[in-house]
């Protein structure tokens, strides 16, 4: 068995191992948390080098996913509110949260359309930057910062991570095509960077949950359970919508894989702090699903290799 085959077999195990390492070494993640944005930036740069600028489209697929993200979040909040504001807010942020900046990475690994998912990722994050302050105000939540300042704060956190690597990838294609082609051929780099970033994100989430008082445990467990339900539902609904447009993988990842780092920040800034347990636990649920999908994809690829021999 050569090095390539070993990496091929170990790949599906890397996400669960990364999550486990994050749990075990959560006390130390604060020292390396500053690396996360740079890892996400580099992951997207590698991924965007693979796609053609002409593949970016804003079509019915994008609008369908966006409608579920925004209207679904509002519906979930209204339905769960009678059971408690903390629970409703935790569920709301898990649905309203935009697509993860790393979603195109996983989509590419699973064989989906990176260009289509990247298009939705940009629209999804832009919609949250515009609508978040407005929706939080209608929900009756006391937003301390003015609407314009809140929009600027969210936008400043999201847009550079998404648009800068996209612009750099396109500039590389024009001015340094050889370097662009070399990066495009080494897509596996993004997976390893994502695994390392996952250690940091999971570690920080575990540290936050453990810092909460014991009396909050029942409501935190309830929020975590609702987070699991919303995660599974969004992957399933996204897959159904994607199937209508010939791309189940992009639909599932676009709606199901969330930017939990941004969601935790929004929850701590605008909502009851306990609501942040929703996106914090969503980290585990979505990466568990991603691990299963990558395992099944690797298994199918291995079977095809055997058949071709």
From TrEMBL:
Organism: Muribaculum caecicola
Name assigned to this protein: Transporter
